Each structure stands twice: as C-alpha cells, then as structure tokens.
Amino acid sequence: MKHELSAEQIQKYQQDGFLIIEDFLSADELNTWRTALDAALEKRKGNKLPDRVEVYGKGDDADKSYYNNVFDQLINLWQDNELMRQCILDERIGKMAVQLSGADGIRVWHDQALIKKPWANPTSWHLDTPYWSFSDRRALSIWVALDDATLENGCLFFIPGSHKKTTFENPGIGKNMGAIFEYYPEFRSAKAVAATMKAGSCSFHNGLAIHGAHANMTPGYRRAMTCAFMPDGATFNGIQNILSDEQVKGLKVGDVLCDDRQNPLLFSTK
Ligand SMILES: O=C(O)CCC(=O)C(=O)O
Questions:
Q1: Ligand 1, closest atom to CA 123?
Q2: CA of 234 to the centre of ligand 1 (A)
Q3: Is the pLDDT of residue 49 over 90?
Q4: Which of 18, 106, 234, 247 has its CA 20 to 30 A from that of 220?
Q5: What's the CA gap between 125 and 138, in Å, rounded?
Q6: In what helix (H) or strand (E) does residue 198 lie, and over which residues does it extend?
C-alpha cells in the first residue's frame, strides 16, 4: 500500500479538498479487497446496513427510485465480514486521514460499497458531512477504485476549493444534478476535475467538497469501496444518519461520539 504522504500531497489536499493517489493498492491487495467485497455482498443479501434496509436521510423521499438506481450502497461491511474489517480498519489508512485532515485522531464513521451498475444514474453534486451525525469541517472519506473508474462508467468529479466555502446545511442529493448550485451560485462556473483512476488507486476528499459522478454509460460495473472518517472528539449533532433508534435514544446533542464498537479509533497522535 502506498501510504506515505509527502508534504506537497498534504498541502494539495488542504487546498483543493481532494487528493488522488495512483496505484494505492498493490495487485495482491486489490485482489484481497475485491474478494472481501464479494464475500461481504454475499452475506449482506442486499441490506444497506447489517440490520436495516434503509438509511436515514440518504436519497430524498420523492427521488427514492431514482437514487436507488444511482448505485448499490452497502454500509458498514466491516462490521460483518472479517476480511473487510482487516481492509478498512487499517492503521496506515487512519494515519493518512489524520495527516490530511489535521485531526489528532481519526475514527471510522462508516464504510460503504458504492457499486454503479451498468446504466446507473448519475450521482448528483452533493456534500457528505451534512448527512452525518457530527459537524466537523475536517471530516473526510477515502474512495478506493475496485474497477477502473473512467469518464464512461462514472468516475468522481470534484470542485476544487469548494470545501472552504460550503456549510453544514444540506442541499440533498436528488434527481437534479445541479441543485447544489442554488445554494452555492459562486461555484456555478467552476471547473470540475475528473478523478479518473485505475483499479487499486484511491482518492481522499473532504466531506464538504462538492462532488458527484456521471451515469454509468457502459455495460460493466464501477465498484468502489469507501470509508468516511470522523475526527476523534467530534460530538453528536442530533442527526440520525446510520445510527439506530436505540443509539440515538442514548445520545444527547453535544455528546462525544466515542463508542469503539460503532466508531473504532483507527489512528491517534495522542
Ligand atoms: O461513488 C460515487 O458515485 C459517489 C461517491 C461519493 O459521493 C462519496 O464517496 O462521498
């Protein structure tokens, strides 16, 4: 795994809000991640979460059938598959997330397999952090390409520098690709960067960076394994997201989210 980051890469991430790392995984590691994904999917039987079909807040209600055809989205596969657990709970990835975000420590918020099936809909421009149960400008995700991500099959696009201007208000992720620009007209004419990647490469992006993806215009799959990271010490903001009713009942706004079974600490400098 190419896990060492240079000062230039860290600075570029902080400036643009995203960073692409080519050939992040070796060929053997890529095989392992693909095997882990296949095994985890087999066990999950289509449920989004280990215990649930739906996820709170993702895909606005009116647009649900559209959103369900953006990708198959399976969350927290690390919780029910040992091989995936080893892939995701990798201290080296945690250290990269600490270095890029500037946080003292990084916890897993949730992982996600994002599988754009043949002819799947575009992923409308959106933000991630406003969906999550904590509000921290440093939160970020890794997105690992398990197939080549191309202009034809729906690679990600990012709007550089947008993470510095966006807020925790949620513009949603519906059918209207450009809805976010009603909230952020200053980015209407910004030039987006296409993150085409070979399988095994990855990107990191800040959860407040505006990002999206094309439709999959091919008869093949575009599989990605991703993980969202929460800075250690982040507190509950009242949003349910992937938390269960039971977990939410046990939390007050302002409580530190530090349940190691739900949000394991991947790396800490303390
Ligand atoms: O894979 C996609 O099309 C979208 C990914 C995304 O929005 C994310 O990882 O935050």
A1: 3
A2: 22
A3: no
A4: 18
A5: 19
A6: none
